[in-house]
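Incident review: delayed structure delivery

Summary: a single-chain prediction request sat in the queue longer than the usual turnaround. Root cause was a stuck worker, restarted by the on-call engineer. No data loss occurred. The affected request and its eventual output are reproduced below so the record is complete for anyone auditing the incident later.

Affected input:
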Amino acid sequence: MVPFDRSLSGLRIVEVASFVAGPSAGLHLAQLGADVIRVEDKDGGPDFRRWPLSNDGASFYWEGLNKGKRSLAIDLRSKDGRGYVEEIVTAAGDGAGILLTNLPDRSFLNHEELALRRPDLISVRIEGWPNGRTAVDYTVNAALGVPLITGASEGPPVNHVVPGWDLLMGAYAAFVVLAAHRLRCQTGQGQEIRLALGDIAAASLGHLGMIAEAVAGDGDRPRHGNNLFGAFGRDFITADGEHIMIVAVTPGQWKALVAALALEDAVKTLEQSCGANFADEASRFIHRDALNALVSGAVARLALADLESLLRRHGACFDAYRPLAAAAREVAGPIAGNPIFSEIEQVSKARYPVAATIARFTGERRPPAPAGELGRGGGRLLIDLCGAHLSIVQDLVRRNILRDPEVGE
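Output delivered after worker restart:
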């Protein structure tokens, strides 16, 4: 039986992409066993030195997104460099002939031209907007109004720190690669698929009912600070000055919270005075100010440790606010105590927790593979996939077209 994290063995994807969406798509595929060849310029792509950095200047960002991939670092401005990339993209093999890129179609990796060499080529091309205009997560959010409904009721727009649309695009692009490959297996046909970051964001807002709310409902949603929209949830401060996020979306979560804080009588009295039933999440949101006052008063009488014990015992939904470094070090926490993480040494020589595939499955789990050194093994790729002789590889290195630390070792 093939282990789940080797289920894509035999699939080869050539990734020519920078930043988040494309590299995260390649990462998902690599962690499920696909052979992902990351192609970038011989001195590194535009994200090779992107923050956060190690003390020695290596990019934690770059090595985090490129775990388990093979590396080809070659001069993408030279005719020779581009020619070899084109050969690798269109190389033979049932599981090969798949390109994942965020380069524009006017680049040397134009699908129509490459398909002349391999008609069943699959190209998955990530764009900013469907009209070709450039965009990143933060500009897409601005265009769709998300920062204007985030944060306190007054003040400037509030940007989100996590590039959520980029990450969602990466997962969706990986899904599209597999769908296109399945179709090719059935029909023998390749194709180019274009994915726009703006489309991912707009469609997702539509899936959540937010477009309907703005167009057919009450218009633009007002800001609600840290209150969870449409249900009960907010940050509260404990007796020892700690912050905790408490949420009650389902009736069960609400019942557990009320019981943990011994608020049954107070909540019943409030229901009678408001003519509401707080088993309904909408009612909890409508009357959030009064409910927040009840919960805030109960939380303020308890130290965080005692509060967590009560909430956990009753099955409430909560988590204390803590810095990421603390969360990463907690023995039974979401990182250090999580079996998808293993502490390994990365290419930066730093040692820290690194995630393998996120899926939890039956059977043996491979430890996470580190990112490789930029360009290491690229010469072997040219030999194996392009039929280049070792002397040609050595000449490419001498001419500063190919970077491969193995050549000459």
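Verification: The two ends are 38 Å apart (CA to CA).
Action items: add queue-age alerting; document worker restart procedure.
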